[in-house]
Structure formats: structure tokens, C-alpha cells
Amino acid sequence: MTSEAGLRRGRPGYDQETVLRIAVDAFNQHGYEATSMGVLAENLGVSKSAIYHHVASKEELLELALEQALGGLEAVLSAPEQVPASLGSAASSTQSGSSVSSVSSAEQHQNSPEQRLEQVLRGTIAVLVDKLPYVTLLLRLRGNTPMERTALARRREFDREVAALVAAAQQNGSLRKDIDPRTAERLLFGTINSIVEWYRPGGSLTAEKLADDVIGMVFNGLRN
Amino acid sequence: MTSEAGLRRGRPGYDQETVLRIAVDAFNQHGYEATSMGVLAENLGVSKSAIYHHVASKEELLELALEQALGGLEAVLSAPEQVPASLGSAASSTQSGSSVSSVSSAEQHQNSPEQRLEQVLRGTIAVLVDKLPYVTLLLRLRGNTPMERTALARRREFDREVAALVAAAQQNGSLRKDIDPRTAERLLFGTINSIVEWYRPGGSLTAEKLADDVIGMVFNGLRN
């Protein structure tokens, strides 16, 4: 990051998206509170006023970043079938016999709660990989300000809807009932969210295989 | 660790253990970097010099706290059978009379790699619940100082040994081979470590049931 900023030093010309991306990297590396607008300006190789040309405050950068993550997650819940092609289909049929393929929206609504749950989890992993720094920031949020608490409330609503899907899949007999839906939902997202801590796109583990691995473990278990 | 004598040497009011516990709560709440010795003194209602009576520096508090977490985890790996009774289960009971020495190779245990893995995971959950604030602190560590990086290296060694157990259990056919052992280990700890984010001892979900839920999901899956 430093060298890139160095190469570009003196060039005006960052758009808001680039400012946001570099800011989020700095927040994730040093912590949001510990990162001043002065440090951000240094990383970008521009003056502080050049950043204020794009955003009113450091908090606005955080808010824009969180919107990237939350907007992506909420889109998954309202239309889980719209998982990026690279992460969809083939593997969902692995051990379950339930094939989740690209079909029309109308048909999707007829999917079982278990199928919807799998779609939502695959979609969540896709968003996580696609928006890795933004989701990382969201997951590290402590709720120190009203804006942060609003973001966390949106995240909790997402979690509640997934817990409801788990409950529905338990009630119709497709998922085991001995684990409380809220506990299951928390363990599911514990598994999925932890991906931000170690997964780096572009390595030998593709996002598609990663999604297959997660779905395989949480639905069918590691046991042979 | 500091000696018993050291623990009791404190001025009226607080011993080192209490100072440590309150410091760790503050680190977890506000972040280690953001928490000054002055703030800690305020939280304790004592002067800064009263804290320096117990520890030489803020970094020593962090080091003592990390030792609580890492020491607990390493003990699990060297003797996974010694999971607190409250967290054991019939499924993880060891073969009779195996006296435990400090070893890491599977051949010195009569248990299968899969059984050892289950014991280690149950032991990890027990440590996590028992040392919740300390493990939370460890998991949030960024490696900003040599001491922090040493702690993270110990943690990675723990992870490596668990990944080796997964690999051994795959090789003998008890665990599925389509998931890379390192990925499986990361997903396992993703699931387990996330517990610090939401689990609070003393609620309706006991530590024993929590361990059963985690083991049930990761080994057998949520599917009925």
C-alpha cells in the first residue's frame, strides 16, 4: 500500500471508491479509532483536504464501507438465488440429493427452507469473498457510536432471518432438531465469518471450493 | 507465571489476579492500544502506581493474560483426556488407564486420531468458556509487537497440531478427504472461536450442551 501510494504521490485524481478502499485497508490494519484522517492522507499521498473533497468525515468513510458489506448481505437474503455464477449450483447437490440450480425467481420461492438456507449461506460466502475488507470491518465493529450500533442492528436482523430459516428447516424435518436454531445460526456464521481472518482470493483454494467445503461441513459433517 | 507470593503482594483491595481480570475486560471492551494505564487505574479506583505495584507495564498485563489463554490451550493438546468432567461425554471417553505424558504424537495414545480430535475440540471449548476474556483477547491480537507475535506463533503451532490430527483422521478413513486438512482445521476453529463473541456462561445454554452442539455440527452436520 505504501509503495503504491508513493508511486502516485502528487497525483490528484483518486475517486471516492479508491479513497474508501484504502481507508478500509487502514482501518482493518490499525483499527478504526487508531486511524486518523492524517494517516489516511499519508497512505493516499494526498492532503487531508483532498480526502474531505470526497467525504465529510472519517465516520462517513466507515458508514460507506459498512453499507458495502450490509447492502451485499441484505441482497442475499432478499434474492439468495442471485449468487455469482462462480459460487452457484453444481456443488449444492453433493451429498444431499437436493439440486439447487439456476431457475426462475418464481420457482425459487418454492424451494424448501433447507435449500433457501444453503443458498443464503453460499450467497453470504460470495459476498464475504467479494467484499472481504468491508465485511472484515463490519465483523470487527464494536458499536461505539450510534451509527455503528445501527449497522450492528442491521446485521442482527440478517442473523435473525437466517435463524428463522434454520427453525423452518428443523420443523419440516430436514435439519436436526437437537440444536437450538439460534445456536445453529451462530455456529454457522461463526464458521463463515471466520473466513475473513485467513482466506485470500487468488490462492489455490477457489471461492467455489471454499463454499463447497463450508456447506459440506456444516450440513453433512466432516465424518465419513 | 508470577508466583503465589507475587499474587498476594498487593495493596489492600486488589491482588494481581483481579487487576489482570479488570484490565483484560477493559482491553476487550476498548482495545488494548486504546486502554491506558490511567484508564485502568480509574476502572480499578486506584492510582497508577498501585497498578505498577503489581506489574511492570501494560505489556506485562497483556503477556500474563495471553499466558492464561495459551497455557490452557497447550495443556489441552498435551493431555486432551483431561477435559473438565462437565464437558466430557460418553463419545469422547478415553480407553481405560491411559496415563498421560506430555506428548504430541498420536501413536503414544491408544485413541484414534478422530477421537483425539474430538477430545481436543471439546477441551478447546472448555478452555474457551473457562477463560473467556483471556481467549477473546488472544483472538483479537494483531501482532503489533514482538511479544504479541510470539503469542500468535504459539497459537499457530496449536493450529498446526490440530490440522495434523485432521490429516491423520482423513488418512485412516474416519474423516472425509475432500476437504483440505488445513481448511478443515480453520473452519473448525472458526466455528469454535466464534463462541467468544456471543456465549455467556450462566445462561440456559450450558457449556456441555454447547460442546455437544459444536461437535454434532462439525462431525455429523446439521442435516437430519
Automatic annotation (TrEMBL), chains A, B:
GO terms for molecular function: DNA-binding transcription factor activity; transcription cis-regulatory region binding. Residues 13-73 form the HTH tetR-type domain. Residues 87-116 are annotated as: Disordered. Keywords: DNA-binding, Transcription, Transcription regulation. InterPro entries: Homeodomain-like_sf, HTH-type_TetR-like_transc_reg, HTH_TetR, KstR2_TetR_C, Tet_transcr_reg_TetR-rel_C_sf. It comes from the Bacteria. Gene3D superfamilies: Homeodomain-like, Tetracycline Repressor, domain 2. The keyword Transcription applies. It holds the Pfam family TetR_N. This is TetR family transcriptional regulator. It comes from Psychromicrobium lacuslunae.
